[in-house]
Amino acid sequence: MRLFIDTANIEEIKAANDLGVIAGVTTNPSLIAREGRNFEEVVREICAIVDGPISAEVISTEAEGMLVEARQLAAIHPNIVIKIPMTGEGLKAVKVLAKEGIRTNVTLIFSASQALLAALAGATYVSPFVGRLDDISHDGIQLIADIAAIFDLHGLETEIIAASIRHPMHVVEAAKAGAHIATIPYGVLQQMLKHPLTDIGIQKFLADWQKVAGK
Ligand code: E4P
């Protein structure tokens, strides 16, 4: 199980990377827009911080346009992975990019059948959106388990990135369900770090030490 950081914010990416537990970064058009900066500039900065797969998403809806964007983005840095939406046009683009040796992350996956199609088209990664399914009373973690079972049974090498993660238990449950990666917002990474008993334990150790040290 690996962790990616799900943000385009440079300060968050630096802070997460400093912890030594982040293996990659995912962005999407909403996350990039939130930063209010030039897309390519942000992507270049991210590539200079994290040495791992960096997902950058196309905005075209036709395969031809996706391919033009994908080739431009892939030329920025060897770690760039092209995020492609899960549509028929997206699948066509994934097939061509796979032949060109350009890695893809098929995003907006909400069913096992979509994940299967993406894998058969040659996607490097699929991103099932756990939180957005839970938001509408579906079971996002069950989707991860279903995709993992299908990929495992049929020897499909596409890796599963659990996306749209809302809290630490999503990460734990996604890991148990067979996700290869969870991409997590910075806030969730902070929540994963914390436990009140850890803080209490540190205070007690220091207080006990002081009692002896003070003598
Ligand atoms: C990452 O690949 C996804 O774009 C992201 O996790 C979506 O998260 P959201 O549902 O919180 O917008």
Automatic annotation (TrEMBL):
<dbReference type="GO" id="GO:0004801">
    <property type="term" value="F:transaldolase activity"/>
</dbReference>
<dbReference type="InterPro" id="IPR001585">
    <property type="entry name" value="TAL/FSA"/>
</dbReference>
<keyword id="KW-0808">Transferase</keyword>
<dbReference type="InterPro" id="IPR033919">
    <property type="entry name" value="TSA/FSA_arc/bac"/>
</dbReference>
<dbReference type="GO" id="GO:0016832">
    <property type="term" value="F:aldehyde-lyase activity"/>
</dbReference>
<comment type="similarity">
    <text>Belongs to the transaldolase family. Type 3B subfamily.</text>
</comment>
<feature type="active site" description="Schiff-base intermediate with substrate">
    <location>
        <position position="83"/>
    </location>
</feature>
<dbReference type="InterPro" id="IPR022999">
    <property type="entry name" value="Transaldolase_3B"/>
</dbReference>
<dbReference type="GO" id="GO:0005975">
    <property type="term" value="P:carbohydrate metabolic process"/>
</dbReference>
<comment type="function">
    <text>Transaldolase is important for the balance of metabolites in the pentose-phosphate pathway.</text>
</comment>
<keyword id="KW-0963">Cytoplasm</keyword>
<dbReference type="GO" id="GO:0006098">
    <property type="term" value="P:pentose-phosphate shunt"/>
</dbReference>
<dbReference type="InterPro" id="IPR018225">
    <property type="entry name" value="Transaldolase_AS"/>
</dbReference>
<comment type="pathway">
    <text>Carbohydrate degradation; pentose phosphate pathway; D-glyceraldehyde 3-phosphate and beta-D-fructose 6-phosphate from D-ribose 5-phosphate and D-xylulose 5-phosphate (non-oxidative stage): step 2/3.</text>
</comment>
<dbReference type="InterPro" id="IPR004731">
    <property type="entry name" value="Transaldolase_3B/F6P_aldolase"/>
</dbReference>
<dbReference type="InterPro" id="IPR013785">
    <property type="entry name" value="Aldolase_TIM"/>
</dbReference>
<keyword id="KW-0570">Pentose shunt</keyword>
<keyword id="KW-0704">Schiff base</keyword>
<protein>
    <recommendedName>
        <fullName>Probable transaldolase</fullName>
        <ecNumber>2.2.1.2</ecNumber>
    </recommendedName>
</protein>
<dbReference type="Pfam" id="PF00923">
    <property type="entry name" value="TAL_FSA"/>
</dbReference>
<dbReference type="GO" id="GO:0005737">
    <property type="term" value="C:cytoplasm"/>
</dbReference>
